[in-house]
Amino acid sequence: MIQTDILIIGAGPVGLFTVFEAGLLKLRCHLIDALPQAGGQLTEIYPKKPIYDIPAFPSVLAGDLIDHLMEQAAPFKPGFTLGERAERIEKDDEDQFIVTTNRGTAHRAPVIAIAGGLGCFEPRKPPVPGLENFEDKGVEYIIKEPNFYKDKRVVISGGGDSALDWTIFLADGVASEVTLIHRRKEFRGHLDSVQKVMDLAAAGKVRLVTDSEVVEVHGEEHLSGLSYKHKTEGLVRLETDHWVPLFGLSPKLGPIADWNLNITKNAIEVDTFDYSTNVPGIYAIGDINTYPGKLKLILCGFHEGTLMVQSAFKRIYPEKNLVLKYTTVNGVNGF
Amino acid sequence: MDDLIKVTVIDRDGEAHLLDAPTDMGMNMMELCKSAELPVEGTCGGMAMCASCHMYIESEHDLPEMSGDEEDMLDEAFFVEDNSRLGCQIHLAQALDGLTVRLAPVGQ
């Protein structure tokens, strides 16, 4: 069991800055994030995009902002549970929350701060009828263990780097047969990956199907085949053991929706006094919360996290008085 | 007013919404739909990075050509047709007066 003072759900910019502000009050933080790296959408969606409205940074790349926030939080030694989704929440008899992830990692803390941004990033699922019947029975949205596909027939869909990279990898003596199906003729991945796939197709090691989309899945218990629709040639049926649709990630509120929090339009309602939710001890900060006048801006999230840790401190140490200390006077004293 | 154009947005229930669209505020179709409280997510905020503002152009307007980013992003969208565009990449301008768009279905 991982014990901490403030369990932050979401390791995006607001969660990371909250580590710093909590650290100034000598509160320890641990972060959970469904993505395998810290930074949230800044590292996942737009690491190379400049942001212009961070005070005192006329321009900063999203990825660099996260690097700076990690450096700023480092003295306070935050813990991370990455690549796992916060799933269940319970309370124990000492008034502490227990949050368990989808992989069973348990965390215990008196205060929860949900800094979940847009929600958990989950694979985009193509709108093919009956697809859910074959999830983990031949349809996988993420390749976790490449050897799982050893000597199997695999169809990959998508036009981006992950589709290209896995096609190349699985065609190299792993799968018995690899087919790549893509909506267009052009691929948007790295040029050398595109070239490699073209070469593999020319050498007969990959079956390349363009201008096509998978529209049907077939099988009894397990996937046994699929049909794709070609722009001009119509429906084509293909036997396969696996179909891996790789269409990127999109955010979903996810299990937090079932935590008995008041939610309006996919956002958690909070009191702007301290960003507390309707559940005492659970706060929500950053893009995931809503209140009259809410603006989804990183800088507003920083403010919210800063105020929220004050309230968290009083909840954890009701008998102690809190005095605002300036970093210019006291410096930053880490753990 | 000179700076206003008329745009029709057909929502996912087939209902047409005639909107007054300002051309002097640097707005795009995704933002216009959001400001009219139509069900457009605009998750990425308008960077052509999420395809949640996918819409079909139903009128004969000459739109600016798609950027590589937009074309790439539509690869990850579903229900893509020849008249598919990302609303966030369509900037409101006088030439779009009378534009009609239909919101694309949302996936799971």
Which properties best describe this structure?
heterodimer, A: FAD/NAD(P)-binding domain, FAD/NAD(P)-binding domain, 2 domains, five-stranded parallel β-sheet, 7 helices, elongated, B: 108 residues, alpha+beta, Ubiquitin-like (UB roll)
Write structural notes for this entry.
The complex is a heterodimer of chains A (335) and B (108). Chain A is α/β, with parallel strands linked by helices. Chain A folds into 2 domains: 2-122 and 250-330, FAD/NAD(P)-binding domain (3-Layer(bba) Sandwich), CATH 3.50.50; 125-247, 3-Layer(bba) Sandwich (FAD/NAD(P)-binding domain). Chain A contains 7 helices and 23 strands. Chain A has helices spanning 13-24, 41-44, 62-73, 161-171, 191-202, 298-316, 327-330, and strands at residues 2-3, 6-9, 29-33, 50-51, 60-61, 79-82, 86-91, 97-101, 106-109, 111-114, 120-123, 153-157, 177-181, 207-209, 212-219, 223-230, 234-239, 242-245, 249-252, 263-264, 267-269, 282-284, 289-290. Chain A has a 5-stranded parallel sheet with strand order 6-3-2-10-22, with helices on one face. In chain B, 34% of the residues are buried. Chain B starts with a strand and ends in a 5-residue tail after the last strand. Chain B is α+β, with helices and mostly antiparallel strands. Chain B has one domain (4-103): Beta-grasp domain (Ubiquitin-like (UB roll)), CATH 3.10.20.30. Chain B has a 5-stranded mixed sheet with strand order 2-1-5-3-4. Chain B is globular and about 35 Å long. The mean pLDDT of chain B is 91. In chain B, 13% of the residues lie in helices and 24% in strands. The interface between A and B is medium-sized, with 22 and 18 residues.
